[in-house]
Amino acid sequence: MRRTVRVKVNGTEHERSVEPRTSLADLLRDDLDLTGTHVGCEHGVCGACTVLLDGEPVRSCLMLAVQAEGAAIMTIEGLAPEDGLHPIQEAFRARHGLQCGFCTPGIILTVHAFLRDNPSPTPEEIREAIAGNLCRCTGYHFIVEAIAAAADAQRQGGAGP
Amino acid sequence: MKPAPFDYVAAGSLAEAVAALDQAGEDAKVLAGGQSLVPMLNMRLARPAVLVDINRARELDYIREVDGAVRIGATTRQRALERWAASRLPLVAEALRCVGHAAIRNRGTAVGSLAHADPASELPALLLCLDGGLVVRSARGERTIPAAELYVAPLTTSLAPGEVAVEARLARPPEDAGWGFAEVARRHGDFALVGSAAILRLDASARVALARLAFFGVGGTPARGAAAEAALTGQLPTPALIADAARAAAAALRPDDDLHATADYRRRVAAVLAERTLGAALARCARA
Fold first, then answer.
1. I need a labelling partner for A147 at 20 to 30 A (CA). Which of A11, A125, B52, B262 fits?
2. What ipTM was estimated for this complex?
3. What pLDDT does residue A158 have?
4. Do A61 and B38 touch (CB under 8 A)?
């Protein structure tokens, strides 16, 4: 039995009819064509599908689309301004904080919330913050450097978007 | 990896959830944070006919202190409890930092973890250590299941069909009691191979007035370290006595062999962790 779900994604209201078993990740990717949210393990381990639910990182593979009724979701497509990259994205590009890029959207959204709560993290805190996001290229060293650089850039640039 | 079809009820209140469960019969599951249930649905290890979602039952989102007990509502996120406990119940905050990752704890609920009953998870052992219980409700009424009677087997509790866990209760340790928590896991955030939690309180003569020890990852259910509690109570907690008590408690465990560790290894690690957590608890005891 299909259900209607109304959800705000990156500031835009959407209404779709879904089966109750449809995950939020599949709603985003298949029904809203927002394929920046990646689906890796589908059981909450890899972190590739991380999105922001009312500002907090969550696994979109472990949430049913029907549960997002009335919620505000941000995906990686909602991060960058019209005319360029978000400072976190800029730092990942400048510091080579990605290789294949599959884990990158989940990491960047995780980091977006993390730096909001902790604008001056230590390297250890950065590593713990992304412990739930697996990079199978194992590029963690540059990812940690990119996050530290993003923190510096955001502190210098004010509160950031 | 997608769930089999199911019907879905978004309960707007606890009363609606209880009614939906009563109507659905044995083939229903309660959905709270979904961080354990949804993986099982995705892998089709669980195939309920009906999911009763309690997330919109707003009255279940709370943390309250009543008569020395901490009461945690069924939809309270682990992350909220972690923040609340950081200054008020540090043993619980420390254990929660080992539960999954922040993104998991943003959705996962403490009560859901207790009801899921994974033998390697932290919170069920804390329920034992803190003399807690689970309040459950069904169309037949409400009852409180003490921690010692809650855990039956891996992923199996003594909740009956139609019952929904509505609240966890933890006894707050006395102000002058110390605590310890430790676990060994392959990677941060993974399920523990073995873990331990301890509470100690000393009397005016520096003898042990209260000892609580609990283990997880040591068999089908979390376990109390009763041998250590008995060996320590009334005694001067010397390092040698703590080591002996820890070994006695570990010797009584019946862990399983699996892919990750042998039973013997788990028993040895349990003895080490019990000694460390009891030692940490002693170091945190306020001196009378």
1. A11
2. 0.94
3. 57
4. yes
- Taking CB atoms and an 8 Å limit, are B1 and A43 in contact across chains? yes
Distance in Å, alpha carbon of A48 to nearest chain B alpha carbon = 11
CB–CB contact B103 A132 (8 Å): yes
| Domain co-membership, A72 together with A107 | no
Q: Which CATH class is domain B59-171?
A: alpha beta
Q: Which of A78, A109, A143 is the last residue of a domain?
A: A78
Instruction: Give the pLDDT band of residue B287 (cuts 50, 70, 90).
Output: low
**Distance between CA B22 and CA B141 in Å, rounded?**
11
CB contact set of B130 (below 8 Å; sequence gap of 6+): B91, B92, B170, B171, B172, B173, B199, B212
Give the Cβ contact number of residue B247 at 10 Å: 19
Query: Which tokens in the block code for residue B205?
Result: 């003569």
Helix (H) or strand (E) holding A21: none
Question: pTM of the prediction?
Answer: 0.95
Predicted confidence (pLDDT) per residue in B163-204, tens digit? 999 999 999 999 999 999 999 998 877 889 999 999 999 999
Q: What mean pLDDT is predicted for residues B93-116? A: 96
Query: Residues of B at the A interface (Cβ-Cβ below 8 Å)?
Result: 1-8, 10, 31, 34-35, 38-39, 41-43, 51, 53, 55, 79, 100-104, 106-107, 187-189
